[in-house]
Protein 1
Amino acid sequence: MTTPPRTLEPASNFGVIGLAVMGQNLVLNLSDHGFRVAVFNRTAARTDAFAAQHADRSITGFRDLDLFVAAIEQPRRILLMIKAGQPVDDQITDLLPHLAPGDVVIDGGNSLFTDTARRTVELADAGVLFVGAGISGGEEGARYGPSIMPGGDVGAWPIVEDALTAIAATVDGEPCCGWIGPGGSGHYVKMIHNGIEYGDMQIIAEAYDIMGRGLSMSAPEMQPWFERWNDGRLDSYLIEITADILGHTEDDGTPTVDVIVDATGQKGTGKWTVAASMNQSTPVSLIAESVYARIVSALLDERQEAASALGDDIEPLTDSVDQVMADLHDALYAAKIVSYAQGFMLLRSASEEYGWDLDLSMIAGLWRAGCIIRSRFLTEITAAYRKNPSLTNLLLDDYFTHQITQAMPGLRRTVARAARAGIPVPAYSAALSFFDAFRSRRLPANLTQAQRDYFGAHTYERTDAPRGEWFHTNWI
Ligand code: NBP
């Protein structure tokens, strides 16, 4: 009788593919929490270097995908942390033949939610459970606790919950990770997070512009204001890092921010948010203006030509510094409330349109820590939706109605002041216009309807007839 060959027990209980900045930090985070991680990267040299650098941990590098898969306990949990788009499909195609039914593939990159919905169905056909998990917080979040927004095949949740919640950030002992819903909902929520991030950054940039060009403050002079604001209602990661940035100098003492070219880059999630808002007929005008502000900034050469032709002078501000700054604080706060109200309108409409049954309170809660938009403010939003899960709009929550009413005069004065001076404030203006339109009992859309009927016989509803009855006038 011969002894059967000894089969090796899989050494790892989690797999990560993709060892760029996010993947490496998530692996270390998983390792910190006791997971034994198998790692693979398309370029094998990166795997070798990473595994060698962390030889003291339970991290095993593989150059072959089949050996990598074989090293992971079943049902396998494999996190893809690679460039979004075609690379994710290519990697799944390579991976699939090695997987067994019941294994879980998690895409932790910034994938488009419609791609995630498609992949969830495609992998389910192959018996593999697919999760599209938005992961926010950048490099540091990945290393020490990101905000994680997983959605997709709900059967995967009991298999991945322990790992994902273990590595997530926490607030009051609660992990910033919770099951979002089916299909592409996790990546959708991450997309909205990123859109809101664009808005938060733009409203801060507009404050910086008014302080700099309007009040002639230097970056170091601005820093204490941001530090002070960070102690109050505006307390947030982005205000905090803005204070740090403004205080940073070059070796010769020049503020570093002053030597940075004023052309903003973007990777696409802001544009996706705006495209989704158009498709869902839900306004996120502040985020849209923030995306356009980046696009305008990137027209660097054209802007230089325009500045020469049209002049780039501004009218100096005549109000006191204290008045301008008090209004600016309120403008930031009011614009932020409108931006989040719009972002949550979009989430609510997606929830209805796609049948996701999103828990808006939980989503606001997931963003309280570990992510770029983390702030004190999100605790209030969590409370508003916890109090009333079917709240139609954040502006109609008692707390936020009061807050926006208090802050609105400051926003209004700031927009007027900036318009007089010639300082662009597209996000503040969008916030103010949305607020005024949203609270208007009657808008000039009646005239627009009349024009549509005049030139295109598109018909209109009448104020003296029930909604849904359509009329046409022979205008000529
Ligand atoms: P990158 O987005 O820069 O992607 C680099 C990784 O993708 C490398 O591991 C690379 O392998 C791999 N890759 C590429 Br490129 N094409 C591939 C292909 N066809 N097949 C397999 N692998 C491929 O990395 P990252 O900045 O760590 O981000 C990873 C994901 O997380 C992205 O979706 C990103 O949008 C998202 N995200 C990033 C951040 C952040 O702060 N960076 C924050 C939140 C989310 P190689 O080494 O062989 O080139």
Note: Strands lie at 14-17, 37-40, 59-62, 77-80, 104-107, 129-136, 147-152, 170-171, 174-175.
Protein 2
Amino acid sequence: METAGTTSAPLATIASLAQHDGQTVTLRGWLYNLRSSGKLLFPTFRDGTGTIQGIVPKAAVPEALFNTLKELQLESSLMVTGKVRADARAPSGFELDVESLEVISAVSADQPFPITLKEHGVDFLMEHRHLWVRTPRQSAILRVRATIMRAAAEYFDTNGFIRTDPPILTPNACEGTSELFEMDYFDNDKAYLTQSGQLYIEATALALGKVYSFGPTFRAEKSKTRRHLTEFWMIEPEIAFAGLDDLLELAENFLSHIVARVLESHRGDLTVIGRDATKLEAIKAPFPRISYDEAHAMLEDAFSKGLIETQHKAGDDFGSPDETYISSQFDRPVMVHRYPAAIKAFYMQPDPADPTRALCVDVLAPEGYGEIIGGSQRVDSYDLLKRRIEEHNLPLAAFEWYLDLRRYGSVPHAGFGMGIERVVAWICGLDHVRETIPFARTLNRIYP
Ligand code: 4AD
Ligand code: MG
């Protein structure tokens, strides 16, 4: 077994202490907190996998150890050796009877760690995000995020989808020209950061059948809301020979899988985050499905009863308060389908039963989290797609390659995009997406 430092004790991580009850182990990490009551010190150590409290009675340890620890500044890095003892009252289930300590890098008392256990304002914390990520709640959120990303990719990998990564530098818009980050691309050409890989994975879907993409996407949106980032991660499946109904079924199974994976391995993290896990246990397919018109009727009813402040205008998109109200009526994500074609993207297939409606879906997360998935069946007719591009005043030349997909063996196909950060916010019960990504990029912040 691997050992470290001046002791011969085996190395362990805090998350794995259950395997070491009663043994002496060495942990590598940082001093997260230190309480003292006279002749007793209670240091809390963290190592990235969790936190554990140590017990250091003055009478039981070498004097040098007691004095070093007593003066040690928070977030000093160290190796600590001690005996693991199960304790039902401890949050991690264990305590550590400290036997020896090796300081790796001591934080100077002149410049103590800026984040203390007292409350800090969000601006201060975001300004110190590089250090804020060390605190237990933020670390727990990032661990859950990693599992959500892994579970999302895993769902597609194990269900016959081929991952095909679209470009990040693109010659034209996918989701709307007003939200593009523009840059120079040699010889006076412009390039734009991608808003969605969709158009490209439509091409790979016609090559490979079932595909997905997973990567960063960018929106130069001037929206300053708790749901908007300028840089976020999107996972997008695209399927040949599929329609809206296939998409709804995929979305509910996909989301159920992700939530199940989080519940499987993050009960402790959810507790640290303060998330009520019972709310997540309800997230199982099938999910409720309502049409845009039914959602509008719900809003009318709510407005007439004084439950919402602003009246929703038939034909308009839903605002955040509308989505919040609709989603709060269900205990699992609700799939709202068939929005008016006029307010949706040019590539969406009209409903043959009512061409003023698009064969599209927005999945709204419960507890007021709003849209987490947006998708649709795609226009598969060459003539209609060309007309749509023209009606939307998009440059036809830039879309010639996209029209090729309708010239050469077009088939009905459909796909959606899910924003990882919105899903992390919902699953962790956070009130803002800025805590869902290691370094958030928003309208007013690009530091650190
Ligand atoms: O609804 P959107 O704009 O759909 C598309 O981009 C499609 N081309 C996807 C597709 O069909 N393949 O974005 C999809 C999802 C939203 O539901 C939301 O979860 C997330 O991406 N999203 C954002 N997340 C954080 N900040 C933003 N500014 C976001 N904009 C969209
Ligand atoms: Mg959308």
Note: The chain has two domains: 2-105, 130-436.
